[in-house]
Amino acid sequence: MLIALLLALFLESYFYSAENAVTVNIPAMVDVLNLPLERMIVDPPKGEKGIPVRVEVRGPRPLVEQVRSSNNKFGVDLPTTNPSEFTAFLDPQQLRLPAGVEVLSITPASVTIKTEPVAQRELLVEVQQVGSPDRGFEVDHIDVFPATVLVRGPQSRIEELRSIITYPVDVSNFRASERLETSLQVPDPLVGLSVSTVKVEVRVGPARKEHVFENIGIRVLAANGFAATVAPSRASATVSVPEVELAELSAGNMFLIADGRALPEGKHRVGLTADFGKNVRLLKTVPAEVTVTLVTKNE
Asked: What structural domains does the chain harbor?
């Protein structure tokens, strides 16, 4: 019995002796408590998930190994005044280490935390196009679905954003319209997006060319019961047309329209429109407006 007691005392003495002690660095996390939903940590980045620190401890090897494998955490309370910046000193007693294990140092010994109000807004998605379609073709239009995304993050970052840009969409050698999916670029690690990918439709058609047609006649439209005149009676028009169809157009078989059907009697400035065919787009006219004179017809 006495021998067993002496052996136990010897083992305990050795367990806590300097010969059996080790000094190691162990990881720990700092949790910020009481952070309101309307605020977020901007520094250190991703601080809501914990702020890593290193703790140097010394003690018996088995106990130190036990501490090393534990989930070691410090907790700091955000002041109720919700300051944009505050510093918290780390208390080693929060680790609740087993007897015989002591904290030698904490690196860093304090953490400075910066917070901001959370903001969110809808932003347009901007498709980043690279490359060019095959010869004789061009990108007519690019549609993106969804056209907007909800962004959420620190107020200062959100206010700086004007759009969300996709990763490059390569249209090299396209000869027809294509549908594809691409990812969105996250503008800041602290900013979250409601979706991570978008669908893109690249509309490809024959290459177009701008051309100016001079001395095109103007037709004026008037409501029943009115006679109408227009001045000037001719104008020039700049159009966009597929190159292969350009030779089929001439000013002699084209006309512009001054629509006065919704106007009362008198003189009015009216913009010009046209219907040159589904593939021909009117870009501008000179003059941009004409004077339409409406008078009541004599019965």
From this structure: 2-108 (no CATH), 118-206 (2.170.120.40), 208-296 (2.170.120.30)
